[in-house]
Design a protein that fits this description.
Layout lengths: L10 H19 L6 H36 L5 H26 L3 H36 L2 H13 L3 H14 L2 H9 L3 H14 L2 H11 L11
Helix pairs in contact: 1-2, 1-4, 1-6, 2-3, 3-4, 6-8, 7-9
Amino acid sequence: MTTPARVDLYAHIHKALRLFMTDTLQQLSRLDVDDPLDLATGLAQLDALLDAARHHVDKENRFVHPAIEARRAGASSAIEAEHDEHLDTIAALRAEAVALRALPSAAAAQRLYRRFAAFVAHNFEHMGVEESRHNQALWAAYSDTELMEVHDRIMASIGPREMSDILRWMIPALNPAERALVIGSLPPQVQAPVLASARALLSDTAWGKLCRALGQASVPGLVEA
């Protein structure tokens, strides 16, 4: 008999952030400082990623860590300290990006790329701790019903623009079952624009799987594997 999966407050958003971070890292690795449009596009994506990282730290500090500390005192202290370090690094990366915009050079672009790569590497390790130790603490202390209440408070704190930015990276990062769960849980009036965005982000095969999972007919002319 398969044990039902527990509510995981980290799984979906961490997949989105990992995809966003790795894509941004690629953008910075090939940044052409002699092409103003390429430079602007790459740095704009970095700005958006840093916004997402800052928002994520805020959500965990406001909602997840207090839940852990309420029943497992001290269990989130190490990660919370790392959050302070992340905010400092985010500020430093923003300053380097501003300097690169003002005075583009290959050397400055390389420094920014390497600092961001270190930030990504540390975040990956950090998220791994949250997905293991923090989840174990949460699962030991809370029922799934209680964890869904925390999840719902997090969702209620996210505005439309931030939600749109998150879903841009979350939808392609998830597996088919997770993707259908996320979209299917949205309010009906929100699903249509999200599905329209999803269609542009997914391959024909992935789109077909999503439609079937949601119980919808595939769009006319859809090519499915």
